[in-house]
Amino acid sequence: MKPNKAIVELNLTKYNQVVDIEVPLDISVYELVCAVNQAFQLEQDTSNINTCHLKTEHPIGFFTSTQKLEECGIVNGTIIRI
């Protein structure tokens, strides 16, 4: 049985913050970006779904807003840059 969540390192480069968070893998990139934006009060414009994306390491990738995190190969230890 595949896990339905992962503990990832969230790197908010622009804000000089790095935190570990647990994320469900059945949500979209857009949903994660909106949640992080709200939780960390980043004040990024998330009104346009086409401008929301993730850059990752382990696996290395660039993912668009409509992809589910599990489709992106997100696993424990993935580094997500927003």
UniProtKB/TrEMBL annotation:
InterPro entries: YukD-like (IPR024962). It comes from the Bacteria. This is YukD.
